[in-house]
Amino acid sequence: MPKISRRSVMGGIAAIPAALAPAAAFASSEGPDIDPSPRRAATELDPLLGLIERYRAGCAAYQCGSRGNRDDEALDALADVTYFPPMRDIEEWTRPAVSREGASAALRLVLTEIGDFPPSGMLPPLLNAALAYLEAEA
Asked: Which of 63, 64, 90, 99 falls between 20 and 30 A from 6, CA-CA?
């Protein structure tokens, strides 16, 4: 059975219409100090939530940038500047989530990862962060 790579799955997902992906979150033309939304405030208070959102935005940017591209080197380079840095940071995460939103986002990402990439290295850190938050709330 051939091994399925994260990049090949991400490239396959690129066929999904851009309207279904939050690519705008990654490529916003506004500066970082322009958005006074409660969502932005939550991501500033919970670094895990911000990291998960950067990962999701990186995945969306990769999907948009990889459409029709079959050059492995170009796809690797695109992964290196889109989703890979926050994915690596999640895999190295050791702290608990600090908000219910962060814990929920971690669990939602775990569910996505289980469906798409069963051996994902992001699963243990995300589960530990969410569980630590939920146990501290009890």
From this structure: 99
